[in-house]
């Protein structure tokens, strides 16, 4: 007979409480996940994490398990990590902190380069043999969310760029925070990383958070008639670096 105790016993070694600047998060994994990359199957390790307001200092893993038992969490947006290779120990590890993009990643929209960057990061990681992609679920539209992102798209059709549209809607250009991802990254790896990004602000925030970055790897994708203004705005107004390794 499967009981609460036996179920927790089989899962607890995959659960970890992680301290962050704000509140604890519950990391679970790894789960073996075969992933298709350009027609080839590669075995990644998948993790996800949850922040729960009711978790307090001193709570055990069993306290947390009991608190969440039978509680649907589908209404929460949860971030994920795909890890490939010996991420903890290998000298060279390639890391992408990728903001969720419903339109680009799921629908394949060409208005941005997000979907192509997500694919390019996976290709790079399997080619190099070690790395991780953090898929950050609360960062749609640089943190404004999917509903306001739709409004921003409508404003862009009237001539505004992405930065202008966000500001007209009452937001700063970029609301994203990397605190949780930094805390989880420190649990999974203590060695320096190679960061896959064009975003100079992301490099700065990770370094300020205590992450050692060996080098930055650019991830530019093809510029088209659909994404040209979007990419130009990222370079001209959002601190993205067009050059090579730094």
Distance between the termini: 57 Å
Q: Could you state the oligomeric state of the chains shown?
A: single chain
Portion in strands? 15-25%
Number of strands: 8
Number of helices: 9
**Fraction of residues in helix:** 25-40%
Strand order, biggest sheet? 1-2-3-4-6-5-7-8
CATH superfamily: GTP cyclohydrolase II
What's the CATH architecture?
A: 3-Layer(aba) Sandwich
How do the helices and strands follow one another from N- to C-terminus? Answer: HEEEHEEHHEHHHEHEH
CATH class: Alpha Beta
Class by SSE composition = alpha/beta
Mean pLDDT: 91
Report low-confidence residues grouped into runs of 5 or more.
none
The CATH topology, please? Rossmann fold
In the residues, how many domains can be counted?
Answer: 1
The profile of the biggest β sheet is: 8 strands, mixed
Structural summary, described in words:
The chain has 246 residues and is of the alpha/beta class. The protein has nine helices and eight strands. It has one domain: GTP cyclohydrolase II (Rossmann fold). The chain has an eight-stranded mixed β-sheet with strand order 1-2-3-4-6-5-7-8, sandwiched between helices.
């Amino acid at each position: 007979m499967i009981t609460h105790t036996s179920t927790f016993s089989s899962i607890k070694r995959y659960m970890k409480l992680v301290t962050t600047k704000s509140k604890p998060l519950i990391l679970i994994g790894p789960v073996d996940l075969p992933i298709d990359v350009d027609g080839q199957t590669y075995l990644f390790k998948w993790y996800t994490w949850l922040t729960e307001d009711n978790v307090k200092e001193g709570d055990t893993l069993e306290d947390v398990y009991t608190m969440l038992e039978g509680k649907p969490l589908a209404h929460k947006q949860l971030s994920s990590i795909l890890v490939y290779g010996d991420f903890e120990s290998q000298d060279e590890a390639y890391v992408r902190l990728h903001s969720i993009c419903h339109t680009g990643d799921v629908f394949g929209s060409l208005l941005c380069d997000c979907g192509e960057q997500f694919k390019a990061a996976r290709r790079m990681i399997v080619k190099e043999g070690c790395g991780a992609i953090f898929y950050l679920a609360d960062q749609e539209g640089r943190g404004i969310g999917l509903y306001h992102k739709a409004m921003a798209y409508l404003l862009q059709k009237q001539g505004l760029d992405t930065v202008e549209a966000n500001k007209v809607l009452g937001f700063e250009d970029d609301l994203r925070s990397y605190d949780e991802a930094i805390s989880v990254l420190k649990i999974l790896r203590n060695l320096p990383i190679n960061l896959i990004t064009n975003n100079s602000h992301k490099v700065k925030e990770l370094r300020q958070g205590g992450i050692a970055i060996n080098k930055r790897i650019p991830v530019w994708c093809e510029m088209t008639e659909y994404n040209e203004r979007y990419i130009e705005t990222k370079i001209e107004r959002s601190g993205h670096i067009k050059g090579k390794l730094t």
